[in-house]
Amino acid sequence: MKKIKHYFMERFELLFPIFAITGISLFLLMVRLKFTLSFFYLFLVWNLFLAWIPFLISSYLSHKPPKKIGLLLWSGLWLLFLPNAPYILTDFVHLNHPNSHPIFDGFMLAVFSIAGIICYLFSLLDMEALWRIHFPNKIVRITIFLLPFFTGFGIYLGRFLRWNSWDIIQNPFALLRDIFDIVIAPQNNVLAWGTTLSFGFGLWVLYGFFKKNLSPTKKLV
Which residues lie below 8 Å from residue 147, measured CB to CB, with a gap of 6+? Predict the structure, then answer.
């Protein structure tokens, strides 16, 4: 119990905004359920849970930093789930559903999206700090630059091709075939590259701004 208390006190500036925005998101969803008696947006709970996974992984690693090999293995698992955090931004497409109430649902989706983005930013901040312990700054900087574009590609795979993070285990060959097709024939996959580059650039700029101006820690350079 003392260790848990110490952990929460030590990381209060990180945990409070994530818990707060998550609580507000779920409250808004419950209000919608109460007044509309519709379960249509209940999938947001699952999407938000998936958005939490990379943050939970990075928080665990920050609490118990692994050695270099262990960090590489954990980073691979973390990377598979990372696109789930900003993926909630794409749930705005559901505003076209007949059961939607555009004003309230738009606000609710915005709050859920902020929760996902916060999970993404804080998780990446944790992982960058861990990588800097074991790897040269140049490698870390390149990784931080490329990660948003990998995330953007993952968002495309999830939203448009309907792949999930665990499909790398359940159906790896079909997933890799789709990825290979996109890579070797970019002219036939404009939407894939457009989604990857637009989300990637946006997330890269957002993380840079966050780390410089809003991060609860200024240890990173």
Answer: 79, 82, 124
Run of H or E including 73: helix 68-81
Q: Could you tell me if residue 93 is inside a domain?
A: yes
The one-letter amino acid code at 47 reads: N
Q: Answer with the residue of higher pLDDT: 216 or 121.
A: 121
Domain count, the chain: 1
Only one residue has tokens 């795979």, namely: 157
| Span 183-215, pLDDT tens digits | 999 999 999 999 999 999 999 999 999 998 877
Residue 220 lies in a domain: no
Question: Is 0.85 surpassed by the pTM of this model?
Answer: yes
Give the Å distances, CA to CA, from 173 to 28, 118, 191: 40, 32, 22
| Chain centroid offset of residue 164 CA | 13
Q: What is the extent of the structural domain holding 127?
A: 2-214
166 lies in a domain?
Answer: yes
Half-sphere exposure (Cβ direction) of 173: Cα atoms closer than 13 Å: 0
